[in-house]
Amino acid sequence: MSLDRLQLAQFRSWTRLDLGFDGRPVAIHGPNGSGKTNILEAISMLSPGRGLRGAAPGEQGRQQAGVGWRVRAVLGGHEVETGAQDGPREVLVDGKPAPQVALGRLARVIWLVPAMDRLWTDAPEVRRRFLDRLTLSFLPEHAEAALTWDKAMRERNRLLRDEVSDPRWYGALEAQMAEAGAAVTRNRLAALDRLAAAQADGQTPFPAARLALLPGEGFADDPDPVALATRLAHGRNRDLAAGRTLTGPHRADLGAVWGPQDMPAALASTGEQKALLLSLILANARALAGETVLLLLDEVAAHLDAGRRAMLYDEIAALRAQSLLTGTGRELFEALEGRAMFLQVSHDGRTSRAEVEA
After folding, report:
1. Which domain holds residue 146?
2. Looking at the 3D structure of the chain, how many domains does it have?
3. Beta-sheet strands, E only, within the chain
C-alpha cells in the first residue's frame, strides 16, 4: 500500500493540486521558488508533528486572510485529510476526527532536506530531533512518551525557577518523568538497533555509519525508570541552582563514526557527510519493509556527483517505498528515466502549477 492520490487546497504556493501516483518514484523538477518543496511539505503533514519545515499550522496557508489550508490523500487504503484555519491542525481519517498520532500508524514518513546536510556539525538538539523522527518511524508510540516527558519536565522546571524546595512537590512529577524518560531512551536504543541491522543487510555503495546514543552532561543511556528517578532526586539542588532540569533524555546526543579509523562524522568532508546521511535515510526506509513508507528527498542531488546520483537512484528504485525527489532540472534525474514518474513544476506569479511529463 502507498500514497495513491494527493490533493492540496490553499497550501503554501499552491491554490490547487490534484495528483495521482502509480507507485513509481516521482522526480519533481523546476526552478527554485516554483513550489517543489511545498509538495513534499504537504505530504510530510500526513505524519504527526509540524512536518519537514517545522512550521506552525498558521504559517502554511496561502497569504490570504481567513483562508485555511487542506491536504487530502488516499494513503494505505484510507482517506486522510488534514488542515487548519485560525486554529490548531485537524486530522480526519476515513471521515472521522483522529489525533495526529493516528497518522503515524497509517504511514511512516521519512524526509531529507538540505538543512539536514549540517546534521553532523549542528547542535546536539538538532540530532536529537532527527533521532526522534527516526524512532517515531519505527515506534509511533514514541511521540506520547516524548510529550509526557516534556510536559512533566516543564512543570518541574517551573518549580525550580520558583525555587520550591519541598520534596513533596517533586516526587509525583519525577516518577512520571522517570517512566516516560526511560521509555524515550528505550525507544531510541531500539531504533538504533534496527538501523544498524538494516545497514548491515543492505547492499549499498554509500558508507554506513556506526551510530550510538551518546551521554551528554547529566544524561545516562540506562532505560531504567528507578535509576532515572534516583538521578532526578539527587540532582535537585544542582537543578535548583540552574533553574532547569539537567538530567534526562533531553541531554542525549546522536554519535556517528565511519570507516576503519572510526572517523567522527563531523570530521568527514561535505560529500561524505551527505553520503553518510543518505545511507542512514535509506537504511531507515529499508528497515520499515512491510509498512507504508513515504520517502521525501528534497534537492537530493546536492553534493553528489553523477556516479553517486545513479547509485542512489538504483537504491531508491529497489526500495519498497513511495519515493518523491526534487531538483532544479530533469537532467539531474537522468538515471531514473524509464523508472520514474516525472513532474514539472512552475510558478506563474500567482500560483504554482504542475505538469506530468511522459
Report:
1. 120-291
2. 2
3. 3-11, 14-20, 26-29, 69-75, 78-84, 90-93, 96-97, 108-112, 210-214, 253-258, 263-264, 293-297, 322-327, 341-347, 352-357
